[in-house]
Amino acid sequence: MPGVATGLAVTGAGGDVLFVEASLADPETGASGLTLTGQLGDVMKESAQIALSFLRSHGAELELPVADLKDRGVHVHFPAGAVPKDGPSAGITLTTALASLLSGRLVRTDVAMTGEVSLTGRVLPIGGVKQKLLAAHRAGITTVVIPQRNEADLDDVPAEVLEKLDVHPVTDVRQVLEIALAPATAPAGRIPAAA
Predict the structure, then answer these.
(1) Which CATH number do you get for residue 73?
(2) Is residue 124 a contact partner of residue 6, using CB atoms and an 8 Å limit?
(3) Which residues are identified as catalytic?
(4) 85-132: pLDDT as tens digits
(5) Does residue 15 contact residue 9 with C-beta atoms inside 8 Å?
(6) Each residue's pLDDT tens digit, 137-180
(7) Domain range spanning residue 117?
(8) Model's pTM, two decimal places?
(9) Residue 168: inside a domain
(10) Domain count, the chain
(11) Treating both helix axes as pointing N-terminal to C-terminal, what angle do 91-103 and 173-180 enclose, rounded to 10 degrees?
(12) Which residues have C-beta within 8 Å of that of residue 52, sequence separation ≥ 6?
């Protein structure tokens, strides 16, 4: 299903996989704006607004039908509602979920990501790389996208974990979309159920 992406987070118990779901309201409902659910803190809310603003301002370049957004509400949900989520590391996951929704392209189920995004599409560094990559490995993820500025943090990740992960350090959200979105004509595989 388009609009679902897998992110990585650090919780009180260490690293964890974080699912993001995005949906568009039917134009007939009259809904508009951005709705966020899933026990989110202010930083996560700002990340979602930045992701949507980036896509709105770069829709033509990314070949996304963003003109429809003015008449339709966007809902972003983090299904693990009981777990508080706040931190600047979900921007690229939010952008990917929204780009998937708008393009109709599925997000590859073997990909997880962490990184913040700027209004111009730069991927900004985050914390907790080791914990996040360990969580990805535990969850059976094989491809991980991280900010290039966090590449030095890979030295802290056990070699046996790194050997099993295809880590992509990136500088721009366009690179993230190229890695994470399945080709428009090929099936992406099974979308994991929300945890």
Answers:
(1) 3.30.230.10
(2) no
(3) 89, 132
(4) 456 678 999 999 999 999 999 999 999 999 999 999 999 999 999 999
(5) yes
(6) 999 999 999 999 999 999 999 999 999 999 999 999 999 999 99
(7) 4-180
(8) 0.88
(9) yes
(10) 1
(11) 60
(12) 34, 69, 74, 94, 98
